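DATA SHEET
Item: assembly model
Revision: 1
Owner: S.N.
Input lines:
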Amino acid sequence: MPTRQNKMTIIILTLCFTALTYSFGKALEPQADFSNVRFVPVDIIIDSADKSIAAYQFELKVTSGIAKLSGVEGGDCEAFKAPGYYDPKALNHGRIILAAFNLDKSLPSGKFRCARLHFMISGDQTPEFEITPVVIADAKGNKVKADMTYRLTDRD
Amino acid sequence: MFNLRKSIFTGLLLSLLAIPAFLLIQGCGNDINSTVSAPGDTAAYQGGTSDEHGSSDTEAIDKTRDSAREAAQEVQVISTLFHTANKFAEQRRFQAAIDTIDRLLSVDPYNEQAKYLRNMYSQALLWQIQHEKSRNADHNVTMHLMAVDKDLIPPVEKIEYPTVEKGSAKPIAAGQGIVGYDVSGMDGGVMAQMYSFGKAPINNQIVLNNFNADELWVIAKVDTAKSVVPVDDNTPVSGCCVVKLPDNPEEVPLPLKHTDVTGNIAGYIATVNVVQQFHNPYDTKIEARYVFPLPQNAAVNDFLMTVGDRTIRGVIREKEEAKQIYEAARSRGHVASLLTQQRPNIFTQKVANIEPGKAIDINIKYFNTLAYKDGWYEFVFPMVVGPRFNPPHTTDGIAAVAHGTPDGTSGQSTEVHYLKPDQRSGHDISLAVNIDAGVKIEDLECSSHIIEKKYNSDSRVNVQIARNDTIPNKDFVLRYKVAGNKVKTGIMTTTDDNGSYFTMMLYPPESISQLKRVPMEMIFVLDCSGSMNGFPIEMSKKAINRALKRLGPDDSFQIIRFSNNASQLGPKPIEATQENIEKGLTYLEGLHGGGGTMMIEGIKAALDFEHDPKRFRIVSFMTDGYIGNEAEILKAISEKLGESRIFSFGIGSSPNRYLLDRMAAIGQGAVSYIGHNDSPIEPVDNFYETIAHPALTDISIDFGDMQVAEVWPPRVPDLFAGRAVVITGRCKSPKNCNITVGGKVGSLDQQYTVPAEFSDNTRHDGIAAIWARKKIEILNNLLNTGGPTDLSNAILTTALSYNLMSNYTSFVAVDSATVTSGEHGVTVNVSVPVPEGVKYETTVQEVH
């Protein structure tokens, strides 16, 4: 007959075996590694001096590094607070084309953020972009000469 | 030799090694698959029940166990009796309900709830007797509805029936509204219906405006102008009331607080915005996961995530890529959301890193075309996924599991968590629909919900569900009729950078309504599975009963039932003689719901069944469609259809419309739906009207000068009387022209023209998305029925190019600007109620 001590031993050994098996099992499962991935916002800035802006469209290309668009946010002014629309066909081919317009609210002028793009970055390199304004226009649809730049905030 | 000391030492050593290894690998216990046992979650308490008595006192433990078992059995008996009594009451069998409660009181004499119920049922019985007497005596009974604040409800023994004048709407106390509509002529059925569902019946056109109370009282008052003889001294002559039993459900805090739906219908196209308001009611960070339905033809093409006052538009990505972006953002502490498709009508929403007390809104936008059935346009918004049955060999199914069940228990890829009948989450829904029909709206009805409607003109109306009908446990079904039976804009277009697109609603020619059909061979296939138990199967039996009685002497029929297996009335088609129909009705009466939904058995039995070539064979499925192996079923129908045509009836408050619509499309037939509050008579009669005339078949369309391309569906379905189909395509030049439709009615050629007029009124931004969605649907169907595998690339490219949700794409949104503190938190599933009329006990898998 097994003694009480023997019983205890068997229970302890069973527990150990179970814990070890489970631990090793979990260790063997493929775990997603996101240590080399980070997320950064990229602000798109327009400087139109004294001209009010009602519409914009630009194209942004990744020139170095690996960056994937993961969200589109609006700007810091009321007119462009709602996120703009990206062209899905262009995105499917690795290009980012974003546009927005607003004729209803007070239109911004000077230096302002018209959009913020959220990117997932893979690898150590901070990506670089090339931004090309397609159109920047006023409320009457006239093209406005303005600077368009981007600002990347990389915490890492 | 067994060395005890050594073995103990080794065991302890291994324990010391194993436990840290286990903890190390587990991290902080919050791996991707971990599931929170949120407050109210039963799973939270399951792991912590150890034997606290010690091993020495086994006798005491046994005694405790025995008494616990007895107590559990008693609770089970009481619960069953309550349930049975409630069922009797719903059926207006109040005497039976009282008898059942008496049985319950013999088990538990001090059950206050039972006493309360008995009193209520007695009141209802008295009312029934009195009402019957007064009706026989040709006296009027006036009934009133009253909304009453919970705090003002007096104890049952002391109820004083307020005197309410006919049509009165005077408040009887501050802050308390009386809904005093004149509802003379309501009968006991209506009262029972109200009693059961706590809402006004639709058929009587009662609308509860500004209804904001805890209870609904139904006041029956005999018209005192005419003398009424009391049944006895206890029978109230001035009125009697039936009170909805105050529910006392367990509140389950969940991260989905509210859903707000706004639909705008222009012509026959709906643009719908769905806002899901998530929040975190716990004191730890969470990930919310919610499985929810959308219409099966919804073209979901926009996705927004709002965090505080910032809104982020989601991006369409290949499904796996989107998942990886989401998982990475989640592990990095960013607020993120992911929308994936499980079926064309079932989606999963995940929201990561919701901090305690914070709220996050998800806005989903879609377009879809309305159905046109029997002269009505139909807008449907599903609110809950019905509990599905998955055959044993499947792993890609949709499982129905109890609230609190750990993830992965079912072995299926998607799990819907259901609340128990006595549980309630705070999640509610508001829904508004604005219809601009373009022509006069002649009639509008909603049998699923209490609605409020406001006409802005004769062609425009605003509809919203009433504030007391906000539990999301059934499909919202709104139907409207327009003058001339057709909306003005039969053809609609849009033009963008990629060209022009059109949709067209093709109606059958008037002439087919004047032709008669050939004799029929009707095969009724009744789903007798557990989910059909109770109301759904009774409704189905009534529908078959009606249909059998409408068969002609030249027709034949068969009745097949299926659950875990299939069986039938006879081995071959039966002539529709009076005697045989009686036999069929008797067979039908003996059928009950229970067991699994092995629909494949029903399909085989129906479609492999011996066919009479002289008759037109119609196979009519009566089912809620609650299965998780849709692809297998649709493939089988496609392979076995032969000469049969499938005309199904979707039964219940939230049927699987994707399955039933696809069955009808593959089966070259049609589908009708019978909701929880519907009578089966009208759908069955409409069905007979549809099949009473031959269809327009072999349809070809000449689009004139429109220069069309990629028209979907490529083969136009047969057109039946009272039904319309939607055609969509691309075109080079949308200009006014005549479209010529040709086809065959029997052996006769038919041709008719449809004018295509383009104007500002016929433009709609959603047409391109609808076109792309239809293309994806057709390609998917081809793929599922053995088409070339490279079709999946075409589907992916189309979905990515048109920003559309699909089986191969998902929306993902990440807020990279802020990082939440700490680990990514635990996952909380949003549990939902089972659909109205569906029994939890027979459909939801519980883990004990």
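QC remark: The longest strand of chain B covers residues 256-266.
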